[in-house]
Amino acid sequence: MEGAILGLEGVYRTFKKGRTLIPVLQDIDLNVMPQECICLVGESGCGKTTTGKILSGLLKPSRGRVFFEGKDTTSLRGAAYNAYRRAVQIIHQDPYASLNPAHTIYSTLSFPLFRHKLVKHYNEARERVAALLEMVDLTPVADVIDKYPHQLSGGQRQRVGIARALTTNPRVIVADEAVSMVDVSIRIGLLNMMGRLQAELGAALVFITHDLALAKYFAWEGRIAVMYLGRIVEIGRTQEVIANPQHPYTRVLLSAIPEADPERTRHKQHIQLRSEDIPRLTELPPGCAFHPRCPWFVPGMCDSEVPTLERGADMDTRVACHPLTRGEPLTLYPA
Ligand SMILES: Nc1ncnc2c1ncn2[C@@H]1O[C@H](COP(=O)(O)OP(=O)(O)O)[C@@H](O)[C@H]1O
Ligand SMILES: [Mg+2]
């Protein structure tokens, strides 16, 4: 897409497990525009983390291309490749596992500064680390900077994880379930801080979550991409996707979000799936992978060809669903 800072084109990724190849991502096209917030949502195992790692260069696609500022990243060498890796930073899901327990906060945060030659000497590094800790509200800095991860709370550790992602002045931050492991009571504080930092730094944010309610809250001004079993099934502006969900899977996800008013939750349309079983990646059903569960399944159409993402009628949202992209109304199966 014109002007995208980061993009995936036709990305596939497989993992080997014994003798079988597991198709974890299939035909992913995704563009990240400068300063936008784009949310990847979908249930556990649908490939969100793998997508985030490929975006940030931690994993290579098995097939397909990753573009940074319009250039294929496999063609980048030396300084240009390092600039890409610096520009895209990831905040990992688990603040316990992603911080080295043997390193102090200063040492964790100064390491990338020295590695990328962003500071020259100790005093400069101390100053920069202190400024980073202030940015993520870990103050007074003197109480935190020389501590070890185990001496901090879970919420404080995740703030260190966020500060580490900011060390290289990234243009894209991939936040992978960044608040899933912390207590609900401190989630909103972390989310608000991430939103504020994103705006201040002018970075784009790829916000990964299994929780559509969180996506709705966080990416209200941005876009949402809904994933199901390794593919994007719907992508569009958050407000449009929430107000007018297209793909049957998106409708199911939305119908499962409780409303603040219990009375409204009780009266919410509950969508009855044809099956609760999620197919294995190694035994994907033919055609649309959602068809065995889809209440609006059309035999002969949905179970033959894999649907590609196309624009739905009268809207910008793109959706991978045969009946919808052919302009046919959804009718319950069996009709
Ligand atoms: N390194 C790996 N080796 C083998 N399988 C993997 C590896 N990483 C992820 N997977 C598998 O890929 C699928 C998608 O994983 P992931 O991208 O972590 O999904 P999500 O973040 O949406 O939960 C899962 O079935 C997972 O078991
Ligand atoms: Mg994940």
- Detail the poorly predicted runs: none
Give the biggest sheet: 8 strands, mixed
Strand order of the largest sheet: 6-7-8-3-9-10-12-11
Q: CATH architecture of the largest domain, please?
A: 3-Layer(aba) Sandwich
Small molecules bound: adenosine-5'-diphosphate, magnesium ion
How big a fraction of the residues is strand?
Answer: 15-25%
Instruction: Specify the helix fraction band.
Output: 25-40%
CATH H-level homologous superfamily name of the largest domain: P-loop containing nucleotide triphosphate hydrolases
Number of domains: 2
Could you give the order of the helices and strands? EEEHEEHEHHHHEHEHEEHHHEEH
Mean pLDDT: 93
Please name the CATH topology of the largest domain. Answer: Rossmann fold
* CATH C-level name of the largest domain: Alpha Beta
**Number of continuous helical runs:** 12
Coarse shape: globular
Would you count the extended β strands for me?
12
